[in-house]
C-alpha cells in the first residue's frame, strides 16, 4: 500500500467507501433462521427497503408462512449445519436471481442451564448451528461474492460472544467463535470488495429468551432493534456493532479497567445467574423444539458416520 493510500485509509468512513456500494432496492438478501424472531424481522426490514429476500430455515413450513407475509420474499428449507444443503441453496438463489448481495447468518439456538447437565446432543447442536452454520454460510457465498467484486456478510453473534455468563458455557463458546470468525474473515477478504460485520445483540425478546427474567445483567431490546442494526451495516460496514450501541464499549471498559473482585460483587447484585434457573413452563415450547432438532441432528450425524465407514 502506498503512503497516499495509507493516509486516505485513516480517514473515518474510508473502509466503507473503499468497498462497492450495495443499494438496498433490488439487492438480493439471504437470511438464515428467517422463519422466526430476529430473522423474520430482518427479512421484513430488507423487504421494506426494496430488497429481494430469501428466507432460509430448517423449519420449511414456518419459513413459508413467514415469507407469505413479506412482500416479494421466497423461502427454502436449509439446515445450516450441512454444507451440501448450502451448496444446493446457493445454486437455487443464483439460478433465480443471478447473485447474492447480502448474507445474514442469523440461525442460532440457545439451550441454557447447568453445564454438567447438558446432553452431548445439545452441545453438538449448539456448536454445529451457531459456529459451523456461520462458517458454512460464509464458505458457501464468499466465492460468488468475490467473483462479483462485491458483497456483504452479517453474522448475528451476541454480546454473549464477549460477556461470559453462568449457565451459558457452550452458548458463550459458540458466540465467541462466531465473533472471532467474523473478524478473521473480515481481515482475510479485505480488498476483495466483500465485507463482513458482526452484530452483537444483548438480551432480545424472542422465543430464545423465553422463561428468562430479562433486564438484569444485560439490557433488553426488541427483534426490530436488531433488524435495523443489521440493515444499517450494509451502509456502515462496521466491524462490530452491539444492540444497543453503548453495551459493547461499556463492557470493553469494564473488562479492561474494573478489577475482577469488584466485577464479582456487581454480578451478584444484578443476579447474573439467571440462565441457571429459567421458568421451565414459559420455556417449554422452545425446549421441546430444540430437543426435537437435537435428536434429528444427532440422527443425521449417525447416518453420515455410517456412510463414511462404508466408503
From TrEMBL:
Can you name the source organism?
Gordonia neofelifaecis NRRL B-59395
In the record, the note on similarity to other proteins reads: Belongs to the short-chain dehydrogenases/reductases (SDR) family.
Instruction: Please list the GO terms describing molecular function.
Output: oxidoreductase activity, acting on the CH-OH group of donors, NAD or NADP as acceptor
Identify the keywords attached in UniProt to this record, alphabetized.
Oxidoreductase
What name has this protein been given in UniProt? Answer: Short chain dehydrogenase
The cross-references to Gene3D superfamilies, in alphabetical order and at most eight, read: NAD(P)-binding Rossmann-like Domain
Q: Which residues form the Ketoreductase domain?
A: 27-207
Q: Which InterPro entries match?
A: KR_dom, NAD(P)-bd_dom_sf, SDR_fam
